Amino acid sequence: MYLGIDTSCYTTSLAAVDSEGRLLADERRLLPVPEGKRGLRQSEAVFLHLGNLPKLAALVKEKLGTLEIAGLAASVRPRPQEQSYMPVFTVGASFGKSLASFSGAAFWELSHQEGHLLAGIWSSGMAEKDFYALHVSGGTTELLAVAFAGGIWKIKKIGGTEDLHAGQFIDRAGVALGLSFPAGPELEKLAQKAGSETVDVPVSVRGTTVSFSGPESHIQRLISAAGGSKAEIARAVESCIAASLLRLVRNAWKEYGQKPVLFIGGVMANDFIRRRLDGSLPGHCLFADARYSGDNAVGAALYAREKAKADAS
User: Fold this and answer.
1) 4-27 pLDDT per residue, tens
2) What are the structural domains, with CATH classification, of the chain?
3) What is the C-alpha separation between 142 and 208, in angstroms, rounded?
4) Which of 36, 197, 201, 283 has the smallest set of CB atoms within 10 Å of its CB?
């Protein structure tokens, strides 16, 4: 089996695939955030990851029994750039390197973003080798030009947010509405109760740069003034994000040319946003399966499999 490890800001993940790329195990544990808080310090998340990884490893062992580890990979940085760094990823890297040393298996490093891309390509069935990817989460809102050439994935950022990430917008609005953090799933459920009444929220997109700070301030004023029901405000947040991403893609098409778009990241598990984008860009959207939109280690496991096959050829 090929193991993948991911220790992001709010999820500990461990996954395994076989030599055919079939998923054998996918274990995750969300890091608990105290009620009323809007996140964790990196030191808090590191401590929680250290406790979670042995427990997830035991679950994988219980499910799969004793299987030879043919290779493993871990997310060691947020993005595929040398200067990209975040302490939480050192936990997965340390765990992976230690396991590789004891098992004799090869170990490879990748970025958290590359893991999202691989999980998205795998779960969506995407066959294109030249496309755009929109990575939308609590820690990232980036539009990427992605191409596979010479056996290497080339990733270039061509747009994204200049301030808040879409997931931060959701979380700040959600906490203000009395929801727990992270607020994505609860805000989506709340929005489903909205009626036909709509709450307008401004959309701020210039070229391939999007801003969510203005819309977030507008939402906070609505909440303070009770300007609409909680459900209507939640739906307005979703609508604003969908409209912003749609405009971002259309502007990128004008500037860089039209290509298929793969949507990845935790925000893209939201069914309303997915349907709104798919309906507005018919035939051009691919989505990571909702189960693999959020943080997971499946992409890292697939990466280990790819690297092992490349080294063997």
Assistant:
1) 999 999 999 999 999 999 999 999
2) 2-119+294-312 (3.30.420.40), 128-292 (3.30.420.40)
3) 10
4) 283
